[in-house]
Here is the input.
Amino acid sequence: MKRIIALSVVSILILSGCGAVAFETPPTPEKETTAKNIKLSFRFSSKPTIHEQDGLLTIQLEGMTSQVKEPNKPLLPLFTHTYLLPYSSTNITIVCTPQEINTISLTKKILPSRLTALSKTTQKQTYEFDSTVYESALFYPNNWYRCDIGAGCDQDQNQVTFVKIICYPVRYSPATNQIAHASSFDIQLTYDAPINTTQTTETYDMVIIAPRSFKAALSPLVDFKNSKGLLTTFKSVEDILDQYTGADPPEQVKYFIKEAYDTWGITYVLLVGGLKSHLYANDKDTRSAGWSCWWVPVRYVSIPQLDDEGCLSDLYYGCLYNDTGAFDSWDSNRDGIYAAWDAPGAAQDTFDMYPEVYVGRLPATNKREVKNLVQKIITYESTGPDEKPWYKNFIGIGGKTFDYFEGKPDGEYLCDLAYNHTKNAIPDLNLINVYSSNKNTTGFVPNAQDIQTAISQGAGFVLFQGHGNPLVWDTIWFDGQYPDDWCGGITLYHFLKLRNAEKLPIVVVGGCHNGLYNVSLLKTLRDKTGDNYFCYGIPVPVCFSWGLVVKPHGGAIASTGCTGYGMGYEGDPVSLSGELESNFFSEVGTGSTTLGQAHGRAIQKFLVEEEIHQVEAFVITNWALFGDPSLQLGGYQQ
Here is the structure.
């Protein structure tokens, strides 16, 4: 792993006008640069194709990479291209010119995007039209392109500057009911690349952050990691809070991680510690943070969706620098409200979501849990995939989350897609499907008994796709209707009957609030309306995703889950939360060898391929990783 340290701070100036965007930096005499010039042209091979759906129109374009998706606004083709520049490049200028612009008159309105939360009790049946767009003669989007810039690490863990060009090849004027489309875009990028860069000394690969009282229980893991060549050290939360300053304890921890990255060259951060009690814990000290009842402090972001006012986000700890080369606090206006975006009473923050380091959390409550987790990790990694025949099992658990997609229930479609991605890395992978479409057959269906039986066989990977809350995961029968025809699913309390012993899978959970790890028994019991913890008065000691991992015998070696609503766009299961989960398996299939790589690169893939609005930031920041980010997928080969 090689990484570049910034030698200067980059300031950004966006120039008005259709054709140019520039990122400029005052001259820094101590730093040598060399001018670079890149020219590219992107041509679309055909005109837009227009189809009718529900009395409205959809627009497709061969060569588009995604779609413009903003709730209740026109769904249009999108093209993105991302440049990876040397970190601390300066004077970045982009000229983007649309070519051969033509117009087409339409007979109906263009279909709007519809946003859906995976656990709402009603399903939208009608389309909503944003009046600021649909009653205007102005073209939407209002420009042919825009660009985003960020800082993070590439696939080889080199620190880079991401410059993403977002092109809108089709724009729509609703009041005149016309589209304008460009046949191609000519792009010219110029920048000054640094000549002299400073490399860090690669002292450690991973730092484990935990309370001092967990150190002895974690020592065998530190020793084991070092014996495998993954250089690992321990740092106590108490020492961090004594030695580092910040606006609050989470920021103090983040400043330590930044220094560890700058001086040690770390790639992974393992946070070990959750709430201090399963019985009762006040999980928030401020709107944006919790620390007094936590072994390791937590950050809450303020990106509200529906009745989620803000979610837990450990991604905060992994995003160390912003696009200017400065420390990224996620509180750019310093009002004490972190990662605010459309948050009541808070000005919007600018923040970077490209991670520099891969962060995972084991939110353990006591030393007994820590010891069990350490033993699980050591046992798993002590043998390789060839010594684990069960590792070649992939369990897909799903049904009709909302609708059919390409002839399949959408949850089953996502499971099949994830299996095919993973098969690129494990050619003889065996799919065990626990599908709602197995109803009335001898196959497994998504109820507690069949899920327990399937997982107890052992698997390398398990994917749940459906609905959830901290207690339960469930889905709809293939021939049923949401929200009435549930398959039965599985609850946290059914995990007691999982009998997979040391055959531990990595489990990706698609659903709302399955990863909400701030729950405790009395807090959830008293929350009868489900406004805060979404359990509706049922006592829950740990959340669903974490419950799989913390189970002392069997369960999972690691998991993911949403700390807020899982979200998606209707008609496209590979969107928002579903896209992140699909990306995880895509990254496994294309070369990720550790848990943190698969999770972090899935986020990076999403960022470089999609246009980021408020809801995209919501799903990215609430996607939690429960596990050791340095975990070798399948274990170390002997």
User: Anything to note?
Assistant: The chain has 13 helices and 32 strands. The chain has three domains: 4-198, 202-318, 377-626. Residues 1-30 have pLDDT under 50 and may be disordered.
